[in-house]
Every structure is written in C-alpha cells, then in structure tokens.
Specification:
35% helix, 19 strands, nine-stranded mixed sheet, eight-stranded antiparallel sheet, 15 helices, Glycosyltransferase, globular, alpha+beta
Length: 598
C-alpha cells in the first residue's frame, strides 16, 4: 500500500492543478490498493531486469545516438526510487544507474538540443525522450531526496537544452505534432517561454486530425493512437486545453469495437505499421482508466478493470507493465477507485464508413470486413498508406482466420483491393474493377522521327513510349464479393469475378498453433505450411474451437496454386505472404464461387 500521507498530499495537489475535482480537505480520497500493488510489483520486476541490461542501453546511446530506451530506463528507475512501497525505494543501488543514464543523455545530446534516434537531429524522436524525462524530473523533484540532486540538475539541463529545438524543429507524421506539443507543454510549464507557447499554438491551430468515426487520420488504432491520446491528455492537463479530452474520449469509444476477446486490437484498416502487425489492448490501459475516472464512464471502467484483472499474465505490446508506474505516480488521481463498470459490447455490428470497416461480434466469435485501402485512389504502395489486401477475418475463440485475400493473375496488378463497401440486404458488398491496356501506334501528330519519346507510366510500368498520347485497347477485370452471416454463426462469401479469363487464388491464412485437417487438402510444392483445398471441406482446430471451410474448387494448369502479389512488390523482391498456415482455393474467371466458413 502506498504511503498514505504522501499519496494524499500529491493527489490533492495534482487534482487542483488539472481541474479534476478532489474530495474535501477533511476527507481522504480512497485509492485502488490492488491497482497500485500490481503496478509496484511489475515495476520492481522490471527494474530487477534493467539493472542487468541498462549498460547495453547506454552503449547503444553512445554508439548510435538512440536516446529513447535510455530515457525510458531512467524514468522506470525513477518510479521505484521515489515510490515508498517499492522494494527499491531510495535504494543506493539505483543511484549509479540514474547518474550514468542522465550523464550519457547529456553527453550525447547535440548542440541544438536534439537526438538522432533513426533520423538526424530529429525533433519528434527527441520528443519521445523528453516526454519521459519531463515525467522523471517531476517525480525526482517532488521526492526531493538529496542523493538525486545531481541527477535532477543534469536532467533539467537536458530538458532546457531540448526546448528551443522542439520549438523550431519540424515533424514527419500527423501524431508527431501532438507529441512535440506534449513535450513542450511540460517544459513551458516549468520554465515559461513565449516561443514554446507560440509553437504549441501553431501546431494545435491545424486542428486535431480526428475522423468522424473516432479514428485519427492515420487510422492506426494501436500505433498513432497510443502516441496521440497520451499527448492530448498531457496538453489538457499541463496546457489548459481541456477541450482535447473530447478527442481522446471519441477515440477510446471507437476502440471498444476493435477489441478482440483475447486482448488484441484489430488494425487491418491502419495506414501505419500496425496494418500487418499484432497489437494489444494494454497499451490503452491508463487512457481508459483516466477517462473512466474523469467522466464516470462505466464502459471505460470495464476495460480498465478487465486489464487489471488479467494482471501481468497478458501481452503488453511495446510498453512493459512495469514502465507504467511512473505515470500513476505522476498523476495520483489515476489510482482512485474505478466507477462501477458496465458490460462491454459483445454483441454488435459496427460500421465505420470513414475507414470502410465493419466489425461484427457475437460473444467470443468476431469478424472483420474491410474495404478501405488507399490503393484504388492513389494507385501506390507506400509507407503511410493503407494497402493491406486482407478483406475478411474471423475468430471462433482460439481458432483464428487472420487473413482472407484474393489474388487474380491479371497483368500483375496484384491482389483484389475493394473500391467500395456498401450494406445490402443480408450482408456487405465489396467491389473493384481494374483494367490494363494494350497500346496502339501513336497518332501522326505525336510521332518523332528520332524515336526519342518521354519516359512515362502506363499505370503498371515505365517506358519511353509516350503512353498518354497512345490509343488504348483495354482489358478489364471486375470483382464483387458479398459477405453474409448465416444462422449457425458462420459466414458465406459469394465471389463473382468476370470480364476477363485469368487464374486466381483465394488465400486463407490461419494463426499458427492449430491443426489443419481435410481429405481434399494437398501440400503446395516449395511453399512451407501451404496447402491447396482441391475438393470437399477442411477444418482448422485449436483445442475445442474449430473453423470449417470450403468447398475446394479443383486444380490444374489453368488454376495454379499461386498467389501473385503484383509487380509493385515482385520488382523489388518484396513479399505479401502472411505468416501462418495457408490454404489456397484456386479457380479461373469468369467465376461464381461461394466460400462457406462456420
């Protein structure tokens, strides 16, 4: 249990500073002892490990200029050092690591106050470190223990030196704006500077990039949101922008519908790295807790309570649980008891038209329909775009179909990526039409006797052919997919592929850890864990959970078991092969085929 008098004193101070109402002076606010005990235990375990590895972090900072891990380690050491209930409270064993980390961060800081961390003199990457150092300094300063005076002085110098660079430097991505603002806000509050306020106001004047459905513009539920939400909360608390709570609240409400029963978060619609990666709900733990306590939101309280109940026996993504104690010590109101929780949504159909995403949940069974890649609009594969060709996913407990994709061999244009999503009677319709040209001779007015034509792009490749001025003979491929839920909780997907005769393959990718069975399954030569369903049905089983699917659709030279990623990938030796157990169902257009999953 945290020391009562110390905790209550800081609770009252923080509540007054943030505008969160506190109990009358004569009454002591209650605390969630179990929550604090869990974070304290996790932090102590984390620090025990860091004491053996922090030297590697220092070496990495010196050799590569990577400050983020060092700043986070300093923050984590600080949290247990100042916390009276920690086994490391005021432990002399931490003074050396704290001094080494602080001194090295100061030594490796560039003259302009910035660090590199993957980009030369990078303001946003520096901001990640400054956010942690702001928090660590506040805790050390509040603790006021004399042996850390030198550490405090060094950290304060690092922060003061970073301020001007953050106030003049630029950013790369949408969420970086709010991160830089958050880093500056606490520096400004401690040491006010009009230049800091001007830069924060300039970034905020661009408007928060919140879509109507609750996602931010990067549509990244577990990458940009876990940067943006904490940054906006910091600005609300330390810069007086309490209006920003509304954006965080909207995002957390949207997140309720992309939570999987096992704590993963659906991110197929993301424009960032998480569009093809597993991310986990605990990254949102303290955000949900803060808004639950502030708003009295019963559903947010349910998420926070669920994560607390699951304790350390869950995946925490990029942020170990032990690193979270610092945030609660910095904002003691987070340790107040949660409001009474309300049931989380477990039976719903949720449509986010901004992301062209549909989420369906029936207890432990979930499904995702996705038609919102950026490819149909921009015709490019690039960082910052949504390009994941997965258009359907489903789960029955532990049996997980991570991906369903369609790959026609049509002029090497790659996977089916829907151009639209609409609700129709009994389901959801996805559709796309792609075309490629054969080029005719140039009209006389565009011919050149020297044959020196400009390099141009025909939509697939580049050549010195002056493509824009050539008449064209088009070939077209049209695809429609109707997705419907059937009575037994399963799904029917009707495929209609027409207008050109080409081979195609449906690719089902199941999460590793289960067993695949079916008499009509044949291994695909040269491809690990890949099978072709030639006939009948097959099943994927994990324990008592089972997904049955099919039927197979034959085989042969005109429908080879090949998934073609498209020339945009193959030219660069890239791959779109998902990790897992893959089953291919092949065919040839024109094709009408029904896939059943149940």
């Amino acid at each position: 249990m945290i020391a009562r008098r110390t905790f209550l004193a800081t609770t009252a101070t923080t509540a007054a500073a943030t505008g969160i109402s506190s109990a009358p002076a004569a009454a002591e606010p209650r605390t969630d002892a179990g929550f604090l005990a869990l974070l304290t235990e996790a932090a102590d375990q984390r620090v025990t490990g860091l004491l053996t590895t922090y030297g590697e972090t220092i070496t990495d900072l010196r050799d590569r200029g990577r400050a983020r891990a060092a700043a986070r380690a300093l923050r984590t050491f600080t949290s247990v050092y100042v916390h009276k209930e920690s086994a490391y409270h005021h432990s002399p064993d931490l003074l050396g690591p704290l001094r080494e980390l602080a001194d090295t961060l100061a030594e490796e800081q560039h003259d302009d106050g910035l660090y590199d961390q993957g980009a030369v003199h990078s303001p946003p990457d520096t901001a990640f470190s400054v956010v942690d150092l702001n928090l660590a300094y506040a805790l050390l300063d509040r603790d006021g223990h004399r042996p850390t005076e030198a550490v405090r002085n060094v950290v304060e110098q690092v922060l003061d030196k970073a301020g001007p660079g953050l106030a003049t430097g630029g950013v790369h991505t949408a969420n970086h704006r709010w991160l830089v603002c958050a880093a500056l806000a606490r520096i400004h509050r401690r040491r006010p500077d009009p230049a800091y306020a001007r830069r924060i106001d300039a970034w905020l004047a661009e408007g928060i990039d919140l879509l109507p459905g609750g996602e931010y513009s990067e549509r990244s539920p577990t990458y940009s949101a876990v940067v943006t939400n904490p940054a906006l909360l910091t600005l609300a608390r330390h810069y007086g922008r309490t209006d920003l709570y509304a954006a965080v609240r909207a995002n957390l409400k949207a997140t309720l519908y992309v939570i999987e029963p096992n704590g993963e978060v659906e991110s197929v619609h993301s424009r960032r790295q998480d569009q093809t990666a597993l991310r986990h709900l605990p990254e949102f733990w303290l955000q949900y807790r803060e808004l639950a306590i502030r708003d009295g939101d019963a559903r947010f309280a349910a998420v926070a309570a669920l994560l607390q109940e699951r304790g350390m026996d869950q995946t925490f993504g990029e942020t170990p649980l032990g690193d979270r104690l610092a945030e609660v010590l910095d904002r003691p109101e987070l340790a107040r008891p949660l409001p009474s929780p309300a049931p989380l949504p477990e039976n719903f159909v949720h449509h986010d038209p901004d992301c062209r995403l549909v989420r369906i949940r029936r207890g432990t069974h979930t499904a995702t329909v996705f038609a919102g890649t950026d490819f149909p609009e921009v015709r490019a594969i690039s960082s910052g775009l949504s390009t994941n060709p997965t258009f359907f996913k489903m789960r029955k407990g532990a049996a997980i179909l991570d991906s369903l994709r369609l790959s026609p061999q049509f002029f090497s244009l790659g996977h089916f990526r829907a151009e639209g999503l609409e609700q129709v009677d009994g389901g959801w319709r996805l559709h796309a039409e792609v075309r490629a040209a054969f080029h005719q001779p140039l009209p006389p007015q565009h011919r050149r006797p020297d044959g020196d034509y400009p390099l141009s792009n025909d939509g697939r490749f580049w050549s010195a052919m002056d493509f824009p001025h050539r008449p064209k003979e088009w070939r077209t491929l049209r695809t429609e997919v109707l997705v419907r839920q059937i009575r037994d909780g399963g799904w029917e997907l009707d495929f209609d592929v027409s207008r050109s005769a080409v081979p195609l393959a449906l690719e089902l990718c199941f999460r590793r850890g289960g067993t695949l069975t079916g008499d009509g399954l044949e291994p695909v030569a040269g491809q690990t864990d890949t099978f072709q369903l030639v006939s009948g049905e097959a099943a994927y089983t994990v324990g008592d959970d089972r997904i049955e699917f099919g039927p197979g659709n034959g085989k042969g030279g005109k429908q080879p078991p090949v998934v073609e990623p498209g020339e945009r990938y193959s030219w660069m030796n890239g791959s779109l092969t998902p990790d897992g157990i893959r089953v291919l169902i092949t065919g040839r257009s024109p094709l009408a085929y029904r896939l059943t999953l149940r």
